[in-house]
Write a structure and sequence with these properties.
single chain, 3 domains, 19 helices
């Protein structure tokens, strides 16, 4: 951090504030205006926190890879414009003799890493390559997507505005790991834009051209950065949107005929997509997924004695590398994703914060089970499309993250795409349980009134 950061960072923060204030002025709902304002400043505070963490505590990929090499390409282009072609080519074609840090050899060959490097290089032309200013721009991109995600849920159930804000705008781990120069930041932004884009095109049928183009752009970005998020998230979102469209149809027979056809069509389409893109999916292809998880587990175990191995852990169950084995360890993997590390397992401040969140989350889960009951929860998952979407995506995602990530430092970052959806599914279940309890209370009160002595006497009097 130098004088350039101190000068440019407030300028870009101010520019982002003016831009998002202009967007906020277009919102007519005072409640949404309030959450938009709060969400923006919380995201910027999260950006500052991540910036300080990266600079003074743990300067990992954010500075060591993305900022260093992105800034390096920016300076190469300033020196000789012919180097601009590196921004237009895939990372595997990048000449690594130009790397600023030789320890980054091999990392730029990953298109996911090079995409972030490319974006940092492009933003460097606006920020003179200053890390603080670039961090604020990444946070601004993230907030634009996070707000779209909040807007999507708000429009489904406005009365739960506070609960959705807790899950999306206020959740500390989610804010922190989606506010810096990271793949996760761009991935979360992409998820938000894809969600609202598909919602607008498939259900609302508004601004179809605009949202089709933005959805395609962010789908491409997410597929480049973390394709496993795209292939695990999109099917559940599409299923929800199509079921929601079916609810508009009043003819019960037509709905009964169309519902299974929609589900079957989505399954077939998704299967065809996976089969036709096996090479692009690589280790995320269905045939190789279980064995890839076993390979990742072996890689974590081989780190024993390494300085990063302090945060390694064991699931406590054996995984044999088969799809059947993955199903067997699924409950442990899901529990690990959402509720570990425990406080006594945490070795860093970021893990301590996550462990406190995990404790609150598991207490809330128990409270929901106590209030609703396990059978009622199962019925909600099967009958409420929004709960189905949020719960199933978060559980499926948690299985693969928990089974393949045996390091707490990595786990608390990798699980953030599922956190809001799991939390929202619990809020929705709790709300439905409260509504059911209120209806029962009103029914009992009405029944008591109908058999009250005064009511009985009045009913016996001649008319």
């Amino acid at each position: 951090m130098n004088y350039g950061d101190l000068i440019l960072a407030p300028i870009f923060l101010g520019l982002l504030y003016l831009y998002f204030r202009r967007q906020r002025n277009k919102i007519t709902d005072p409640l949404l205006q309030k959450y938009h304002r709060q969400g923006f400043w919380i995201k910027m505070i999260g950006c500052v926190a991540f910036f300080m963490y990266s600079v003074y505590i743990y300067p990992a990929d954010s500075i060591g890879l993305y900022q260093t090499e992105g800034n390096n390409i920016y300076h190469l282009i300033l020196t000789n414009s012919r180097h601009f072609h590196w921004l237009l080519q895939k990372g595997k074609y990048f000449d690594e003799s130009y790397l600023k840090n030789p320890y980054n050899t091999g990392y730029s060959k990953s298109e996911a890493n090079f995409m972030v490097i490319r974006i940092v290089a492009l933003l460097s032309f606006l920020t003179a390559g200053r890390y603080a200013a670039i961090s604020f721009l990444f946070a601004g991109i993230a907030f634009s997507g996070v707000w779209k995600l909040y807007l999507f849920f708000y429009e489904q159930n406005p009365k739960l505005h506070r609960q959705f804000a807790i899950a999306i705008l206020y959740f500390p781990t989610f804010i922190f790991w989606s506010s810096g120069v990271l793949k996760d930041t761009l991935s979360i932004a992409s998820m938000g834009w894809i969600t609202y884009g598909l919602y607008s095109v498939v259900y609302l049928r508004k601004k179809v051209i605009k949202y089709t183009l933005t959805t395609l752009f962010f789908a491409y970005l997410l597929a480049t950065l973390k394709i496993y998020i795209l292939i695990s998230y999109t099917p559940f979102l599409l299923l929800y949107l199509f079921l929601k469209r079916l609810n508009v149809i009043r003819n019960g027979f037509v709905k009964l005929m169309l519902a299974p056809l929609v589900v079957i069509g989505l399954v077939i389409g998704f299967t065809l997509f996976l089969n036709s893109n096996e090479n692009a999916l690589g280790r995320y292809a269905i045939d190789d997924l279980a064995s890839s998880i076993e390979t990742l587990n072996g890689a974590y175990k081989s780190m024993d004695g390494n300085s990063t191995a302090d945060s390694n852990f064991d699931l406590g169950v054996q995984f044999d590398g088969t799809p059947a084995g993955l199903i067997r360890i699924a409950p442990v993997a899901v529990f690990t994703t959402f509720f570990r590390p425990f406080i006594w397992e945490s070795h860093k401040m970021s893990q301590m914060i996550a462990s406190a969140e995990n404790l609150l989350l598991i207490l809330f889960l128990f409270w929901v089970i106590l209030k609703a009951g396990p059978f009622s929860i199962l019925r909600m998952i099967l009958t409420d499309p929004l709960i189905t979407f949020c719960f199933l995506f978060s559980i499926v995602f948690a299985v693969f993250v928990g089974a393949s990530t045996l390091n707490f430092g990595t786990l608390v970052r990798y699980k953030i795409p599922a956190l809001p959806f799991f939390t929202i599914s619990l809020f929705l279940m709790y709300d439905k349980a409260k509504e059911r309890a209120l209806r029962r209370k009103e029914a009992r009160a009405h029944a008591a009134e109908s058999v009250a002595p005064g009511s009985l006497t009045a009913s016996l009097q001649p008319g």
